[in-house]
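Bench notes, afternoon.
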Amino acid sequence: MPLMYQRAISVALFSAVLSPLCAFQARAGASLFVDDAAVTAPGHCQVEAWVRGFHHGQEYTAVPACTVADTELSLGYSVNAEAEATQLWAPGVKRVFRDLETHPWGLAVSAGATWSGAANRWTDWSINVPASVALNTHRSVLLHVNVGWAEQTGQSGGLTAGTGLGVALHPAWDLLAEIYDDQRGPTTIQLGLRRSVGQAASVDVFVGADRGQNNHWLTVGFNVPF
């Protein structure tokens, strides 16, 4: 069976296994690879930040974002704290075409690029189409499906795809899981919990791995809107 078909079947099985129904509302976002079809509330901003620890070092990321007229503008900054620190800047834009908050499913389009401080140039760009679906009337289970394209400077691009699932276990706790595939690299899997704090802030803890490779990590992050 072709590799892409095997990966597509894995994504489908992953979604089916993790679909129990609960009575609270699930959410996505932050340090997940699979995006949702939602943005920060219009006229508001947020800061998402996380630390990702690998066996060879840590990666620190912060992404402030603001939304104007259903279009979210963001500027991410990431530094890899190894012997030779790598600093990356990532501007992005995301537009919602169907609002998930007022419909059973939502649709958005996002695009972004990365500037490497070490290389002093743009190193890659990507475009992504996230769709989100509420799987029950309580909106306690949300399914997110992404399809996109990513390309590095001077190299051939490739399709990207992912499936994520958010299950609300309790008004303050969400179970989040995802599988993300890039034609140019390994399949990535993440599983974790989100703890809501106050009205809209949250704290995340995820474990992740690249399937078939000795590459594992732990992520701790937070999201603060304002």
